[in-house]
Amino acid sequence: MEMRLLVAVLLLAAAVASRLPSAAVGANYTVGDDKGWNPDVDYTAWVKKHKPFYKGDWLIFEYQNGRSDVVQVDEVGYDNCDKANALTSYSKGHTYAFQLKEAKDYYFICSYGYCYSGMKLHVTAKSSSSSSSGGSSSSDSSSADDSSSSSGDTPSPSSKSKSKSKSSSAAPATSLLLAGAGPYAAAAIAAAALLLNLNRVL
């Protein structure tokens, strides 16, 4: 009887947890792929290749120190290649990681003159979807390398690993619950199914 009560409590907790928003882990995208953040790269085509982007995703800019920089600007600054009203500017090191923290449009330029020949980037971040976040990761890069910012130190993107849940001996109803559950709820449901199966054996 105690075992059934425990199982019922676990199932209830799993049901409640499945309704809570799950913490999304963003994908990492190396801007320009293997060409990096450099002149003579078609960044419009790069965006089309990798979109959609989601809130929480990371843009990894790999550039040549002293030859390029990464300047976040508004739409007017993007259209005119003008850093006068820059939101942030990064020029130290060789790599900068930028997280898309909100669902909105983001604009970046290189202020060393290359913007006029196309070294600029416009990305639209969408709200997180209930499924996995869009495109595949383009890089295993997971930290900013000596980057400077007008807002201080830069957080590093977490490495994203896509893994599928394994449900070995879960009942069909449990499998249906697992399909729509978040990671914590899925673990609680799987544990409850395991306890039910153990109870049958004992």
Question: How would you briefly describe this protein structure?
Answer:
Keywords: Disulfide bond, Glycoprotein, Membrane, Signal, Transmembrane, Transmembrane helix. The chain has about 200 residues and is of the alpha/beta class.
Write up what this structure looks like.
The chain is an alpha/beta fold. The protein has two domains: 2-22 and 164-201, no CATH class; 28-126, Cupredoxins -  blue copper proteins (Immunoglobulin-like, Sandwich), CATH 2.60.40.420. It has helices at residues 2-19, 43-50, 75-80, 172-180, 183-201; strands at residues 28-30, 53-54, 58-62, 70-73, 88-90, 95-99, 105-109, 120-126. α4 (172-180) runs antiparallel to α5. The longest helix has 19 residues, at 183-201.
- Main sheet: strands, sense, barrel: 5 strands, mixed
List the helices and strands in order: HEHEEEHEEEEHH
Briefly note the structural class of the backbone.
alpha/beta
Number of domains: 2
Residue share in helix: 25-40%
Radius of gyration based on Cα positions? 22 Å
Protein name: Phytocyanin domain-containing protein
Region (Disordered): 129-169
Signal peptide: 1-17
Domain Phytocyanin: 27-127
Features:
202 residues, 3-stranded mixed β-sheet, alpha/beta, 8 strands, 2 domains, Immunoglobulin-like
